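Work package 3, deliverable 3.1, input record:
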Amino acid sequence: MKAKSFGYIVIASSLAGLPTLGQAEWQALPEQAPVPADNPMSAAKIELGKTLYFDPRLSSTGTVSCNSCHNVMLGGDDNRDVSMGVHGKTGNRNAPTVWNSAFNASQFWDGRAADLEEQAKGPVTNPVEMAMKDLDTAIEAIRAIPGYEPMFTQAFGPDSVSEDNMARAIAAYERTLITPNSPYDRYVKGDREALTAQQLRGMEAFKQAGCVSCHSGPAFNGADLARDGGGLFMKFPLFTDNPYVERYDFMADQGRAEATGKAADEYMWKVPTLRNVALTAPYFHNGSVKTLDEAVRVMAKTQLNQELSEQQVEDIVAFLGALTGEFPEQSLPRLPGTPGFTIIQ
Amino acid sequence: MKAKSFGYIVIASSLAGLPTLGQAEWQALPEQAPVPADNPMSAAKIELGKTLYFDPRLSSTGTVSCNSCHNVMLGGDDNRDVSMGVHGKTGNRNAPTVWNSAFNASQFWDGRAADLEEQAKGPVTNPVEMAMKDLDTAIEAIRAIPGYEPMFTQAFGPDSVSEDNMARAIAAYERTLITPNSPYDRYVKGDREALTAQQLRGMEAFKQAGCVSCHSGPAFNGADLARDGGGLFMKFPLFTDNPYVERYDFMADQGRAEATGKAADEYMWKVPTLRNVALTAPYFHNGSVKTLDEAVRVMAKTQLNQELSEQQVEDIVAFLGALTGEFPEQSLPRLPGTPGFTIIQ
């Protein structure tokens, strides 16, 4: 199967505008995530968001929380090919990491949510994820837990338990989930000892091979390269005349087109961050590739039509390992209790 | 259905020996849990145990950790009638709280595990819980995560990754999960303002009704009343000539007899702790009773053959609320990563 020509044209015209990679070619991760003007951060809001993020009672079975699939104790995902929601149901896409998701220009693999606030509402009612009948049901579940109301009041003012505020609080918490000070960041900031010789070779190979054309910017996700304000979308697989496409069943899912219905979006995907990529196996939208070295081989072939030497692959993998950052210490939240009754039916 | 006479005889003879309730009638929770001589506590062991406790990769699907059903962010359970393990499978018993489980004289509803070490191995291979094929498979999963080996070495010395040490570490962590300084504890220690007038009435009603005959000792679990070293087992339901037995299907499960195969153990159950009971709805071995007030009514009728007044029920519920203790602040563990590969098949 060949890539459709319109897809290639879209990509080619995008690539044409990419000689620079934002302000600097290699950028460190900022110490703070960008915060939208209409959802300012506050300690009360972050604490509420964290509590909701860990609360499995936001799912129909009381067993699946945001953290179940986007596990902040791990690399912000679940190390599964596709995630497992209520009743063991599985979807068809690999859970993207929540770490540094605040630096994405849009959310979900297909970018169908503009921001973290919009994203946060999705899994709650997805029938194979948290499976609440609707957001009203989720809000009822929150109201049934007496301890939440005062937390909403502290974060948003009185009478503020609502789906929008639930999403705002979760998004605010997620904006604290960033991992600065990776070896790469320390190198970029001037510590020339921070990377090994192999990692430096990998960094150069990553650039020379062209990976950086899409995986650009501080989060290596092309968020600096706007398309409709949603960051960079790329066709995947772009080159289809190779054994990987069938082996890993890459074209069973049409990507962004499944959300938009537009032919131009067929096989278009949001470029994912490479931050902490060493921790987020397995890889690709369907989680079909188990190892990072194979992921590098596949990307080089399907996106850049290149065969890398094994040395180059190893070097690039070493460099990607240098994108594992420092995970902030967090306290375990106490979820408000349900004194004397249960919300689980 | 009538209680079998041998059951009643067992209970009656137990009750005969219970005029005192340990050293003092009302006991505060100790600030430290008892620690067995062959598994001393250490910071490294506790940290390893906590990490394992939160690691869903100890389950066949990578989605269920100890914490999934015994959620320390909640009341140490999952607020479900019966827990939900891998693939949405359910067992037939309500998850006991992990909080203060170190004060139980034996573990599981039927006391089939002598201690926390033995208990910790059970759910890992239970096909409706974490569903690992066997403990060797679980240990292989741990070995596949490179970060665990040094943690075991720190806790137990070199070459120490084993099922026994996994269980020892988890048990050591669980011994830190205690909730002292409840209003009840403060009252018993001399703060006469710690309980409300209603709670004090409930405390007296709890004693007068006879609840304290079994729910004795600092954890209100009869652990001070030895039977084969396993604490107190009681027949439930003891009085069966009431509507509750059928309504809540109490006799579908034969309790301890299902583990021992002994007729004398039919419908015998370990007396559960009442610490934090206000947070652990629903109630009873099958989680069939949704509210604490109904649980009090049922217990009075099935175990003591008493009809409590609604005032007595409310007062006892208020007293039980005073058993909610202080939950220690904990840091969120970082689970060791799986760099460059995934263990999930």
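The first strand of chain A starts at residue 233 and ends at 235.
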